[in-house]
Structures are given as C-alpha cells and as structure tokens.
Amino acid sequence: MRLSFNTWTYSSFPVWVPAYPLDEVIRRLARIGYDGIEIGAAAPHAFPDYLTNDRISEIRRLLDDNGIACSSMLPAPGGGAGFNVASPDPAERAAAIDQYKKVADLCHAWGSPTLIYVAGWQIFGTDRRQAWDWSASALEQVADHAGKDLTVVVEPTSSDSNLIDSCDDLIQIIEHVDRSNVAAMFDTFHTLYRNEVPTDYVHRLGQRLTHIHLADVNRDPPGSGVVDYLSLIEALKATGYQGYLTMEIGFNRRNVEPDDLARRALAYLKTII
Q: How many Å apart are CA 62 and CA 174, to the nearest integer?
C-alpha cells in the first residue's frame, strides 16, 4: 500500500488560505516522503482551463524529477460554477461532464491511474430518481472518455451531498453503469458522518475498492480521533488491496499548517502499515 496526500489543504478550495503554487506542493510532499500526490483540479493548482500544454508538460517533469507519482485527481464540485452532474440545469450538467473529461485528460498526461467521481447532489424540486439518472448518465460518458487505462472511482460523499451516500448507493450505481473501468472508493470522514464502520466498506466492496481517502474527526490526520485505522489496514491487507491510501485532511478550515498535517499523517500510517 502506497501513501498519498490530497492537495486541498495547500490550495484555495474550498477555504481560500493557506494556498501554495502546485510546484511548491509537489516539492514539499516529495521531501516529506509521500509516494504520491492527489491533485485537486482547482486554482491555483490544476484548473484545466488555466493550463497550457507547456504547463502540463512542466508539471509532469516536476513530478518525475521529484520522484513522486500523481496518484489520483479530482474535480472541485460546488461553488460558482457548480459542476453538479445531477443539476436540473442542462448547461451545468454539460459543463460538469466536460470538466470531468478535461481532468481525465490531465490524468493521462500526468500518469495518474485514478479519476475520482463525485456523483452530484439533488436540488430541491428535482425528483431523486431523475437526479440519480442524470448522474449515472454522466458517469457513463466520463468513463467512456477516460478509456480502459484510467479508473473512474465513485465516492460516496454523505457529509456534503445527498445522492450517493452509502455503500449500497455506491454498489448500485457501479452495477448500473457496468463499465470495466468504473470502481469504488470511500472516505473514512464520510463513514464517520454516517456512524458506520470503515472495515465494513472494505469487505463489502472487495475487489471493487481501488482508492481510499483517510481523515479523522474534523478532517484531522489519521490517528488523532476515533477511527480504528489498525483494523482498517488489517482488513485491506486481508482483501489484497493494492491502491493508494490518500490523506484528505485539514482543508475545512484556515487554522492549519499543511506540512505538519502531512508529516503527522505519514508518520502514523507508517507505524501501523
């Protein structure tokens, strides 16, 4: 199992500061000792429309020169642009799908094996089944664009959304879409929100599980709250998990020191892995 760190807490999403250029974040996480970096597609890091071909190549060289992999990428749903694949506004749905396709192209350029799919959220006045259908259709289009060499993982985001909340919801949409390159992930922070046991997700998802986000209470580093990470690691080993363990921590508030969070998370995970 390899360890990765999500860039949100170093960027301007969703909290504006602290924020650092992507070049600086790559160098810092490589020095701290991470195997991979999960790059969020938001300014000032990797918003697709702000990247030239030269800049895309420059970032790939920076990753290679610092010996750190792009473990995964994810868009920045919400905010002004929306990017809700389940939106009742057809223009927003189309823009969201286009955004995912652009991020998929960045994954190919930077060697990332994984694109994270947030399934959107139901807007008041929209029938739940209709919102679900829009999201499933978008996922099919994103997966077809991604191609067989890029895995699109669906994340249940129960603390932030209302459409794909549970393990059952996750399995249902994966089976409905039925694409070989669509798989599952989960975030321990969201399982906490639902008062669920993370190891249950591991055993229920089995070989579908290809990516994981780790965060404790209040998006603190693993080992600082209530999640039983030792049992989680044991379950992952028992099921033969080969993906990244990605820290998605600290981005919900301003009063953080990103390097400190990154170091504490890495140190703790190494002691139990």
A: 34
What confidence tens digit (pLDDT) does each residue in 245-269 have? 999 999 999 999 999 999 999 999 9
> Domains (ranges, CATH) in the chain?
2-272 (3.20.20.150)
| Amino acid residing at 70 | C
Number of continuous H segments (helices) and E segments (strands) in the chain: 9, 8
Rounded to whole angstroms, what are the CA distances from 211 to 47, 58, 159, 236?
Answer: 22, 26, 19, 11
pLDDT tens sequence across 166-198: 999 999 999 999 999 999 999 999 999 999 999
Helix (H, G, I), strand (E, B) or coil at 81: coil
37 touches 70 (CB < 8 A): yes
* Amino acid, res. 202: V
Neighbours of 80 (CB within 10 A): 5
Residue 247's φ and ψ, nearest 5 degrees, are -80, 120
pLDDT per residue over 104-124, tens digit each?
999 999 999 999 999 999 999
> What are the C-alpha distances in Å from 269 to residues 44, 68, 82, 253?
29, 18, 34, 23
pLDDT at 80: 84
Concatenate the DSSP letters of all residues of 19-74 into one string: ---HHHHHHHHHHHT-SEEEEEESTTT--GGG--HHHHHHHHHHHHHTT-EEEEEE
Rounded-to-integer distance, Cα 168 and Cα 178, Å = 15
Beta pairing partners, 39: 73
